[in-house]
Amino acid sequence: MRLQNKRLFFFTLVAAYLSYTFFVYTSGTETAFKMSAAAQEGKKVFQDNNCIACHQLYGLGGYMGPDLTNVISSRGELYVRSFIENGTAKMPDFELNKPEVDALVAYLGYVDSSANFPNRSVELTWYGTVNNSTAE
Ligand code: HEC
Q1: Rounded to the nearest whole angstrom, what is the distance from the C-alpha of residue 74 to the centroid of ligand 1?
Q2: Which amino acids bring their CB within 6 angstroms of ligand 1?
Q3: What letter would DSSP give residue 27?
């Protein structure tokens, strides 16, 4: 490749990089899903007790227990409460008090309303991200 072509190629890449960076940093991160105070409290309880060591949210986390993204809508709140309050042979009982369990349920409800996992029906944009207007 001639030096002039190399330069042209290089500056085209730099220009593409700069315009994409500008687009990403100015398009904002607004989301329709606002976390309530109770859900924020629940997120803290979830983190303090390291639930993610065994469970996944949005498919990420440990793999000893099931994914909890849609556990509220698929299993129901009572089922979830009973797991958290009592534990099972494989899942420890964390001896959480009622406000902590309420907060956890609020947090899992928030997570549930924010996504479907696994989500096989999303439309990808041409630049590689999920089109939010069609995401469920
Ligand atoms: C040591 C690993 C471990 C930790 C830590 C853990 N879990 Fe679990 N959890 C499990 C396992 C394993 C199951 C499946 C239980 C069974 O079938 O006996 C489960 C099941 C559940 C279920 C029922 C899910 C379903 O679809 O049936 C919920 C809800 C749940 N866990 C919530 C939590 C929460 C909230 C925390 C944090 C406070 C937590 N777990 C921490 C291992 C864990």
Answers
A1: 15
A2: 46, 49-51, 53-55, 64-66, 68, 71, 75, 80, 83-84, 88-92, 94, 104
A3: S
Ordered by start, the domain boundaries in the chain are 1-29, 37-114
Please give the distance, rounded to the nearest whole angstrom, from the Cα atom of residue 26 to the centre of ligand 1.
39
Q: What is the CA radius of gyration of the chain?
A: 21
Give 5-36 pLDDT, tens digit per residue. 999 999 999 999 999 999 989 987 777 778 99
Our mutation pick for probing the ligand 1 site, out of 46, 48, 55, counting the most ligand atoms within 8 A of Cβ, is 55
Interval 67-126: pLDDT, tens: 999 999 999 999 999 999 999 999 999 999 999 999 999 999 999 998 888 877 778 888
Provide the CATH number for the domain formed by 37-114 in this structure: 1.10.760.10
- What is Dmax (Cα atoms) for the chain? 72
pTM: 0.77
Return d(Cα 1, Cα 7) in angstroms, integer: 10
Q: Do 1 and 9 meet the contact criterion of CB atoms below 8 Å apart?
A: yes
